[in-house]
Design a protein that fits this description.
Blueprint: H1 9-33, H2 38-59, H3 73-91, H4 97-105, H5 122-146, H6 148-158, H7 173-189, H8 194-211, H9 229-235, H10 240-243, H11 253-258, H12 282-287, H13 292-299, H14 316-319, H15 325-328
Bound molecules: zinc ion (2 copies).
One zinc ion binds near residues 145, 154, 157, 158 and 235.
């Protein structure tokens, strides 16, 4: 597989994959949103993009060792279905979870004041919506890294030993609910229309898939605008100063404004993971954050009973994995 790397076409394909897959996904979404069944056709497009990314992961991986199974594939898929597909499976209509929430919730909200610029072209309305939603996504993500009470849910996403397209949806459902609330409620309050929610959902879906892909993509100046695989791999680093950066989900605007943007001129880390311990089964992972014992496992502390006669004190970073971000996240 690595023989491809010497091909003349390899650099060209590396450059074209990210914008190509993103634009193809959005084009598919355009047709889906103009069809009689938005949700069904959006799902067809979504899973087609998953298949294309999975193929390129085999052909030109960023990290060859991440192709090997880690025993977490079932859990990754199960969390993805719960987060992104639970609603439509229950309703037998299909779609991503945020889109489904928007379809039902958006018409129910009536904004007290009409602030939304309906007269703008839809493209600019979507860009405005993305910037507003991104602030909620950024805050939810940053708080999840800086507060143990929220890290207990977000740790599941960071507990993987490899990044690939299938762990895109590996989030605890509480983590997802907080993100959806903080990103969508401000848009409801300013009266954003349904098409804006649909397009934000589409952009988030495709950027999310690309962000976690194990493809040797080159993104260059795109790193200044979007959350790209290169930036997001730094975010998954085991090193606190690297991991508590790049919180943006779609855009990196708020990272740049609020000082958490991190893009050093070297290949991003493949040393990913957390210090704590996440349960091995799907159900175990769902309930673990809600018990005191599970919480201590997640944050890397010993069970309480073993602390009665403490042995040598654990290292400070083992006690507070990935926390104390503000003191340690200054990009170098
Ligand atoms: Zn994170
Ligand atoms: Zn991630």
């Amino acid at each position: 597989m690595t023989g491809y790397r010497n091909s003349l076409l390899y650099p060209f394909i590396s450059w074209i994959i990210w914008p190509g897959v993103f634009c193809a996904g959005l084009t598919g979404a355009y047709f889906a949103f103009n069809s009689g069944d938005h949700l069904l056709w959006f799902n067809v497009v979504y899973f087609s993009v998953v298949a294309v990314i999975a193929l390129f992961e085999r052909l030109m991986p960023y990290e060859e060792s991440w192709l090997a199974t880690d025993g977490e594939t079932f859990n990754d898929v199960a969390h993805s279905l719960l987060n992104k597909g639970g609603v439509q499976i229950a309703a037998a209509i299909g779609a991503s979870f945020p889109i489904a929430v928007a379809i039902f919730a958006q018409p129910a909200f009536v904004s007290p004041v009409h602030l939304w610029p309906d007269h703008w072209a839809l493209f600019f309305q979507v860009v405005l919506g993305l910037i507003i939603a991104e602030f909620g996504l950024y805050m939810a993500h940053r708080l999840a890294h800086e507060h143990l009470s929220l890290w207990r849910f977000h740790a599941l996403h960071h507990s993987v030993q490899r990044l690939w397209v299938i762990n895109t949806g590996r989030f605890h459902f509480m983590d997802s609910l907080i993100k959806i609330a903080l990103s969508q409620i401000p848009l409801y309050l300013v009266g954003a229309p349904l098409p804006v929610f649909l397009w934000i959902g589409a952009v988030t879906a495709f950027i999310g898939l690309l962000t976690h892909c194990n493809i040797d993509v080159r993104t260059g100046p795109l790193d200044w605008i979007f959350s790209t695989p290169r930036l997001h791999r730094w975010h998954h680093s085991r090193v606190l100063a690297e991991g508590n950066t790049n919180y943006g989900e779609n855009l990196v605007l708020w990272d740049q404004i609020l000082g958490t943007y991190y893009s050093p001129p070297r290949p991003s880390s493949t040393e990913i993971g957390i210090t704590g311990q996440v349960a091995s089964t799907f159900l175990g992972q769902l309930v673990q954050p809600f018990s005191a014992r599970g919480y201590r496992q997640i944050i890397g502390r010993k069970p309480k009973e073993q602390e009665q006669h403490p042995a040598p004190a654990p290292a400070a970073e083992a006690l507070q994995p990935r926390i104390m971000a503000s003191a340690q996240t200054q990009p170098d």
